[in-house]
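User: Is it possible to get a 3D structure for a protein together with its bound compound? The compound here is L-Erythrulose. I've pasted both below.
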Amino acid sequence: MFKYSYDALVYASEPIETSIRRVARFGYDAIELVGEPAHHDVAEVRRLCDAEGIAVSSICSIFVGAERDLVALDPEMRRKGIDYAKSVVDFAAEVGAPTINLAPSPVGKLAPAGSRQQEWDLALESLAEIADYGAKAGIRTCLEPWNRYETYFINRLDQALGLAAAVGHDNLGVMGDSFHMNIEDIDVAGNYRLAADRLFHVHFADSQRAAPGRGHIDFAPLVQALIEIDYQGYIAFELLPAAADPFATLRSGGGEEFLDAYTELAIKTIKAVEAEVRK
Ligand code: LER
Ligand code: MN
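Assistant: Yes, that's possible. Here is the predicted structure of the complex:
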């Protein structure tokens, strides 16, 4: 059976203790933490996870803003982005998370500042440095493609594979988020198969980013593909309200169902799909 995780990003700013207890209560193997090292007390996270018998599956890097842009044309800004990614690697090592995700440029940057070629070349350099730093710390790094409304850089898993191959570092793989892939990838299951052992991490959410079972993605072919490639990573649920600014919705107390109800429903739905597919 796969290992399951829930992204604490969904829980917005609630105390981490509540989040860890909730995922443990609903039978998860792990929690995914938000890539804001300064917002976490590492000793507390470790103590709570040990007490609840769960692991930290991964760190979800937060590439937002000009200071977290791995292809920034200004070398000082680019350095800030690289240093941020390295701080997420350090955080992962401290909390015992095996994997972090990376994005070449931040959420909401919808056009290159320089030429595409120039930014591509900068991405190769920045990503190689971070992948290498991760390798030395024993932390796997992987590229997450986002849909066209979040980034111009890479939108599909096959593009992420192309970028990872161009970097050519063993420690740089890809991850596939079913929400983004449902929008952009021609064949979601096919692209999981194409990634094969370069697929380091998976995010699952339904078509409108609600819990699987609440939208129109048929998860059986996706699960089948993961089984066929002998996927050994975690399936982490990253669910968000259907709003232009889902975080504002969560912060203002909207999206109550993303707490207990979806935490319970997501794992229940996909475990049932997994059991059926493995029959
Ligand atoms: C992060 O995992 C993600 O999928 C992005 O949509 C965040 O903006
Ligand atoms: Mn994601």
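The radius of gyration is 18 Å. The chain has one domain: 3-277.
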